[in-house]
Amino acid sequence: MADNNIDPAQLEEVFASIDPMQVQMARDFLAQGGLEAFVFDDESSRMLGTTAAVPARLMVHADSVAEARERLKDLGFSE
Q: Domains of the chain (ranges plus CATH)?
């Protein structure tokens, strides 16, 4: 269930991909480590009829950006 109390202005992108499954996997890895992460735009490309139109984005709270990027880098996720 989505948390509707999240202010997108307080989030920063840490990973993006035209493959929404990769973004979901990255989110799951961060969640397993205790970092709250959110996927944005994962359905946008499909609505437009092309998978490369809008990449799915992984967002975290601004105070977690450095830790999230480091973890994603260690796991092989890079933009």
A: 11-74 (3.30.70)
